[in-house]
Specification:
- The complex is a heterodimer.
- Chain A is mainly α.
- Chain A is built from 19 helices and five strands.
- In chain A, the strands form two sheets. Chain A has a three-stranded antiparallel beta sheet with strand order 4-3-5. Chain A has a two-stranded antiparallel sheet with strand order 1-2.
- Chain A is globular.
- Chain B has a two-stranded antiparallel ribbon.
- In chain B, helix 9 runs antiparallel to helix 12, helix 14 (272-293) runs parallel beside helix 19 (406-432) and helix 15 (299-319) packs antiparallel against helix 16.
- The chains are: A mainly alpha, B mainly alpha.
């Protein structure tokens, strides 16, 4: 009788995710320990996990690895997203420290869940198999559903968690059905082998319907129209630090999986689905921007603005190639820092009745807290896309790629949208700098960790804006192997 | 080596950032950051200077800056002997002036802000000099303009200062408009902005294109270096603190134009027309400004017009192809003009803010160091044989003479006569004639503290030795020219013989005549304050009002423009554009309010929308 041959277990490519998971276990363990332990220890452990994962990611740069029979592929592409995800996770832990204590929801579960979600995101970016895509997506999503409902006593938080969960489950079922159909057609869930099967029978209706359902699932996670309706409710109701995580890390991870699945499996015979993406991009950015104009709640406004930014990123996907797709990666990098920073400022502002979330709450902020107002101002200017900030360069490369690929009108629509967006972003700046405060005064909740997070984000925005070329090169180099 | 290069701008940048962001905490200690920053920058420049290899151009890239399609620009430094010389002047003179500022600005409420701007200026100027492509040059060209604006308007509560800052910025923008166009033309004609490739490719440019580009670039130089007809901002810039005038409006920033033209000589030499224009604009400005300086009564205005005039000499030299001579004059001028401004600042400081020559006099016994050093500076400017200005001006005059441009030579000689006269006049009126200030003012006259007189002494020494050390002509050009020979080929011959002797003798004669005439007018007999600078004749009035250029610009350009913009603002913009935009904006808001209602808050509706979306996507995919 032959001995059972165990497959060689290679854990190297999983190292970043494992570090994060280990940190999560440690956080839970610490919570069981003596009560006397300082509460900050939880956050510091979580932060150490993020930074450890970031270092592990940087250490593996340029040395791609595969594990579990190609189920996990840690190539430069995944590593690039790992950097985004780790930064986003670390910024959010920093922002959470004082925010949670102030809102009385400081708990080990919070940090553990953030770490679990982060691990899910990293796996999503490195998934080389549809099964891993689904598992990672659920690991991330389930953690986020719980996190959204963290403020147990607040109705809005509960509502957000419930809606997010119900609709998320709905979307996941589309995704799962899509995976099943693709498996039915290809006989495998491995992306490379699907590509081979797809190349043989590109017109197979099973494939086509399967992909359609996959797109629905991903469309929900990246919040493109018409799968965006959960976004404003969830962003508004969830704790602001969680909103920041949903808006940055989870969006980046979903984009990572979407781009990898499409790029790898369709590289044999790329079908012409451009009109679909073209239309979704236009509708997404336009709806996001137009509705954002009507919002008076800052978190809701940023929610619609994040939808609009998804539209811009889809422009890069339409452009395609290393240029366009690389531009999307770079855009995600700039978007993460900017959006996390903007939500970060909100976590630092409070009023007697709770968080300062109405635009009116920010009237006259510049006079009382000039640094805070300047920070938010810079984040908003970057979101508009004013040079020399990161947001400008991100847009520049995305629209530039579209023009070079011949989609001039798409770029024109994108630029018009950017101009329209300036209105609602600048309105906040106007309130901060040119209006007198009304009613109770918005107070600044001092937080050293929060200050560090904002400083990092600001520096990153300026750095990416002033010398973008090396990072764009990295993004394009990371994405190029997928397209071959 | 490449690290050293970047240290030069890095020191002042860090200093500026520290004083900008922590100025409130640093306060009176700002100079402990700013002055060492400059000293470090100067040391790094010395190291660079010692390591420059003649005949070799070193480029070092900090990072790729903008990459967009086939357009690529890096932050790159371009280092050759010319860069090294410019950096030494900028950081060396800059360091001395920073030191001087410690005393001059000691009780100013904006102490930290002052040093932040000054450091920012030095950062921008060193980057301008280091820049290895035209885009980077343009960025820092604008940055020094911005610093100049900030520093002229440093005392922004004074309307005159605020006005002068604005004027400097706007007039500079006029020139920069051309400069920007020139750079764009370079790109469209050659597809690159890198110095290396542009200068190599210049030889293939069609002459007409080269002329267009060169003239547009020169337009920028006219603005930055205050040449006709864009000179009007420099005299007004004297509203800034005096050390600022010394650093920016005499020694460094205004020389950027000369530097740029010399640097881009490959482009200019392709077009004889452009070189001719440069030379004649230089001559015209030299004479024009010198005549105005003859009768100004404000000590800083005399120096300001003198600066404009001397910049004219530099442009003439560059236009005649005598680049080394032009740059040499730039260097010596930086020494003695900084010295003169700082000396004037010391006088103003000692007199409690008095700038009017009519109310000065008799300071030689009260402010000994200032008197001695300023006299050396003035004689350097006037061209006393043996001092720096004599040698450098002689180089320019000789260049005009030996290239056969006798007309230019004669005009420059006339300018030199005026220079000697107005310099001596200023010196006599301020220091050597009898005191004309009020008794009380006279009582308070005092010498400046050591932190101010030390820079004066150093600059005086430089004025004395730099000419002898670097400027003695020989068969193969001056020592200075030989150092720059890898950048600017030396034209052998011409020096020596009868021609050189004639040029030399004429220069000495003119110098003596100018001083002597000033002596007769202002020293031979005691002079009353109200007898100085009164518009007695038409010529006098013309000069005192600087040929009425400002009122002319006001009538011909400013007011019609204002009227036009008033019209456009009231009728075109307010009615038509704003109306359209407002209508558009309102319609979007209405739309937004409408679409917003789709967001019902009911989860079922959201799910149904998703379902509809899924159906639409499947329908599309299946239809392909």
């Amino acid at each position: 009788m032959d001995a059972i041959v165990l497959p060689a277990v290679v854990l190297g490519p999983l190292l970043p995710a494992l570090i994060v998971l280990a940190a999560a276990a440690l956080v839970l363990g610490l919570d069981l320990g003596p009560r006397a332990l300082p509460r900050e220890l939880l956050a510091v452990t979580a932060l150490a996990g993020m930074i450890g994962a970031l270092l592990a990611t940087l250490a593996r740069w340029g040395a791609p690895g595969r594990a579990f029979r190609d189920m996990v592929v840690l190539d430069n592409y995944a590593l690039f997203f790992n950097v985004i995800i780790c930064y986003s996770g670390a910024l959010i832990v920093l922002l959470s420290m004082d925010y949670l204590r102030r809102t009385g929801s400081d708990s080990a579960e919070y940090y553990a869940l953030v770490l679990f979600a982060t691990a899910g995101m990293m796996l999503l970016a490195a998934a080389g198999d549809l099964v891993v895509v689904f598992l990672a997506l659920e690991l991330m999503s389930l953690s986020l559903y719980v996190l959204a409902g963290l403020f147990k006593r607040e109705l809005a938080s509960g509502e957000a968690a419930m809606k997010y969960f119900l609709l998320g489950a709905f979307a996941s079922s589309f995704l799962l059905y899509g995976i099943a159909l693709v498996y039915g057609a290809a006989g495998t869930t491995n992306l490379d082998r699907i590509a081979a099967a797809m190349a043989a029978r590109p017109r197979d209706p099973l494939f086509v319907v399967g992909y359609g359902l996959l797109l629905v699932g991903f469309g929900f996670k990246i919040s493109s129209v018409p799968f965006h309706m959960w976004v404003p409710d969830v962003y508004q109701g969830a704790p602001t630090s969680v909103t920041a995580l949903i808006a940055t890390g989870s969006k980046a991870a979903a984009f990572a999986a979407l781009i990898r699945v499409l790029a790898v499996t369709l590289r044999g015979v790329p079908p012409d689905w451009t009109p679909l993406f073209w239309a979704v991009a236009v509708v997404t950015m336009t709806v996001g921007n137009v509705v954002a104009i009507a919002q008076s709640n800052l978190k809701r406004m940023l929610a619609y603005s994040s939808i609009a930014h998804v539209g811009y990123m889809l422009v890069g996907l339409v452009a395609g190639g290393a240029g366009g797709t690389g531009a999307v990666l770079f855009y995600l990098l700039t978007y993460t820092f900017t959006t996390a920073g903007a939500f970060g400022v909100i976590t630092l502002c409070e009023r007697a009745r709770g968080e300062a979330v109405e635009v009116g709450d920010y009237a006259g902020l510049a006079r009382r807290h000039p640094m805070l107002a300047a920070a938010l101002g810079i984040f908003l200017l970057s979101l508009i896309g004013i040079p020399p900030l990161a947001g400008f360069v991100g847009k520049f490369y995305v629209f530039g790629a579209a023009v070079r690929a011949g989609y001039v009108w798409l770029a024109v629509i994108g630029l018009l949208n950017s101009a329209m967006a300036a209105y609602y972003y600048l309105r906040v700046v106007v309130y901060m700098y040119m209006r007198e405060p009304e009613g109770a005064v918005t107070a600044y909740a001092p937080s050293f960790a929060g200050g560090v997070a904002l400083t990092v984000a600001l520096l990153a925005i300026v750095l990416l804006g002033v010398m973008p070329a090396p990072f764009v090169d990295l993004a394009q180099a990371a994405v190029a192997p997928l397209l071959r | 080596m490449s690290t050293t290069v970047w240290l030069i701008p890095a020191f002042p940048l860090v200093g500026a950032l520290l004083n900008i962001f922590f100025g409130g905490v640093i306060g009176r200690r700002a100079h402990w950051i700013a002055v060492p920053a400059l000293a470090g920058s100067f040391l790094a420049s010395c190291v660079l200077f010692a390591n420059v290899v003649p005949g070799e151009t070193l480029t070092t890239t900090l990072f790729a800056w903008v990459v967009a399609g086939d357009f690529e620009t890096s932050v790159v430094a371009y280092i050759d002997p010319l860069t090294a010389v410019m950096l030494l002047v900028v950081t060396g003179v800059g360091a001395l002036i920073h030191l001087y500022s410690v005393g001059y600005m000691h009780d100013d409420p904006g102490y930290a802000r002052y040093f932040a701007y000054m450091n920012l200026f030095v950062f921008s100027m060193t980057m301008l000099v280091l820049a290895g492509n035209f885009l980077l040059l343009y960025v820092f060209w604008e940055a020094v303009g911005l610093c100049s604006y900030l520093l002229i308007g440093f005392w922004y509560t004074r309307p005159a200062a605020a006005q002068a800052g604005k004027k400097a910025f706007i007039v500079n923008r006029v020139g920069d408009f051309g400069f920007g166009l020139g750079i764009m033309w370079i790109w469209s004609a050659m597809g690159t902005l890198d110095y290396d490739r542009v200068f190599k490719g210049a030889a293939e440019l069609p002459p007409a294109t080269a002329t267009g580009i060169a003239l547009l670039l020169f337009m920028g130089a006219c603005g930055k270096s205050a040449q006709l007809p864009l000179h009007t901002w420099l005299p007004d810039a004297m509203e800034g603190p005096t050390p600022v005038s010394a650093l920016i409006h005499a020694a460094t920033m205004v020389t950027a134009g000369v530097y740029m033209v010399a640097r881009s000589r490959a482009l200019f030499e392709r077009s004889p027309v452009a070189l001719e224009v440069v030379a004649w604009v230089g001559v015209a400005t030299a004479l024009f400004a010198a005549t105005i300086a003859l009768i100004q009564t404000d000590i800083k205005r005399v120096l300001a017009y003198s600066t404009v005039s001397q910049l004219g000499y530099m442009f003439t030299a560059v236009g005649l192809g005598a680049y080394a001579a032009g740059i040499f004059h730039l260097v010596t001028h930086a020494f003695f003009k900084a010295l003169l401004f700082l000396g004037a600042g010391s006088v103003i400081h000692g007199l409690g803010g008095e700038q009017d020559l009519r109310k000065m006099g008799g300071l030689s016994s009260r402010m000994v160091t200032t008197t001695i050093t300023t006299t050396i500076g003035a004689l350097g400017l006037a061209g006393l044989p043996g001092l720096a200005g004599f040698f450098s001006k002689d180089e320019i005059l000789a260049a005009a003479f030996v290239t056969g441009r006798r007309g230019i030579w004669a005009l420059l000689l006339l300018g030199a006569f005026f220079t000697a006269f107005y310099t001596a006049r200023m010196l006599f009126l301020a220091f050597y004639s009898g005191p004309r200030m009020t008794r009380e003012a006279a009582h308070h006259v005092h010498e400046a503290p050591g932190v101010m007189t030390l820079p004066l002494a150093v600059l005086a020494v430089l004025t004395v030795i730099s000419g002898v050390a670097l400027g003695i002509p020989s068969e193969h050009g001056t020592r200075f020219a030989r150092f720059l020979a890898p950048v600017f080929p030396v034209h052998d011959g011409g020096h020596g013989g009868f021609a050189a002797l004639l040029v030399l003798v004429m220069a000495v004669l003119v110098f003596t005549a100018g001083i002597a005439l000033a002596w007769v007018v202002y020293m031979a007999a005691p002079i009353r304050a109200d007898a100085i600078g009164r518009p007695k004749t038409v010529v006098h009035a013309l000069l005192l009002n600087a040929y009425y250029v400002d009122p002319l610009y006001d009538r011909v350009i400013v007011r019609p423009l204002l009227a036009l913009s008033e019209f456009l603002a009231r009728v075109f913009d307010l009615r038509l554009i704003d109306g359209l935009v407002n209508a558009l904006g309102r319609s979007v808001v209405v739309w937004a309010a409408g679409i917003r209602h789709l967001q019902t808050g009911y989860t079922v509706n959201y799910a149904l929308t998703m379902l509809a979306g899924a159906v639409a996507i499947l329908a599309f995919l299946l239809s392909r």
